[in-house]
Structures are given as structure tokens and as C-alpha cells.
Specification:
Blueprint (H helix, E strand, L loop, with lengths): L1 E9 L2 E9 L4 E4 L5 E3 L6 H18 L3 E5 L11 H11 L5 E4 L1 H8 L14 H13 L2
Parallel strand pairs: 1-5, 5-6
Antiparallel strand pairs: 1-2, 2-3, 2-4
């Protein structure tokens, strides 16, 4: 059974949804990292601890795929500096972490029925990304 982790980054938070199963039959796996803040991005020890805890989580769950929803780097809707810092921390892990463009997600999930009522409102984008990861890791 496949297990995937969809991640969105907002402000200073990592928001994740873990799905296990297939696109036709999946369940949300509860995790303490559904909304996980980087409390002080300027403190080296806090940043290290944040990274270590996430890497431990990745290792413990043994994901088939981990994806981060891509954010704009320029313009009106550009991601904040802290979100790019978090993204960099995740990309330096030994786990394969994909950055997934919103258009890729939309094209793969446009006809899918995804039950986002299984997660909190702020997790919906991460849920759709996790579904996308299930669909693309067949």
C-alpha cells in the first residue's frame, strides 16, 4: 500500500496531509505535522530542530513520495522568505522531495472526486497534492 505526503507552505508553517492507499481507496493518516510552524527562523538551533523533527517524521512514515506545492518566486502572489527556507530544508534531506507546479496538480486531478472533508480547511491544498502523488506514483 502506498503512502504519500503532500505539503503546502504558508507564512512560517508547513501544512501536510498523509494519504495511504490508492486513488480509488485511500485514507488520511493522522500526523502531528498537519500544521507545523518554524517558530524562530533566525535562531539556528530552532531551525536545526525543525529540520531534524521533519526528517525523523519522513523516515518513520517511509513515504513512497513527498511533494511540496510550488509557490511563485516573483510577483504579487510570491511565497514568503520563510517558506523558501523551509522548502530548502526539506530539499536537503536524503528523501526524494518533489516540487509540484499547481498546473500539474490541476491537470492530473481535474476529473477526480477528492473528499477534502476528511481534512481541516487549511489542509485542502495539501490533500489535493497528496492525491496527485497517489495518482502519479502508480
Amino acid at each position: 500500500m502506498k503512502k504519500v505526503c503532500g505539503i503546502t507552505l504558508k507564512a512560517n508553517k508547513l501544512i501536510s496531509v498523509v494519504l495511504e492507499g490508492t486513488t480509488n481507496d485511500y485514507q488520511v493518516v493522522p500526523t502531528p505535522y498537519d500544521s507545523y510552524p518554524l517558530k524562530d527562523s533566525k535562531d539556528q538551533e530552532t531551525v536545526r530542530r525543525f529540520r531534524e523533527e521533519l526528517l525523523e517524521f519522513f523516515g518513520y512514515e517511509d513515504f513512497h513520495a513527498i511533494g511540496i506545492r510550488e509557490r511563485m518566486s516573483k510577483g504579487r502572489f510570491a511565497g514568503g522568505a520563510i517558506t523558501f527556507k523551509i522548502e530548502g530544508l526539506l530539499q536537503t534531506s536524503d528523501y526524494p522531495v518533489a516540487i509540484v507546479h499547481a498546473n500539474s496538480i490541476k491537470s492530473k486531478t481535474k476529473d477526480a472526486i477528492i473528499d477534502t472533508s476528511l481534512v481541516k480547511a487549511y489542509q485542502k491544498e495539501a490533500m489535493v497534492l497528496a492525491y496527485y502523488l497517489l495518482a502519479t506514483t502508480d
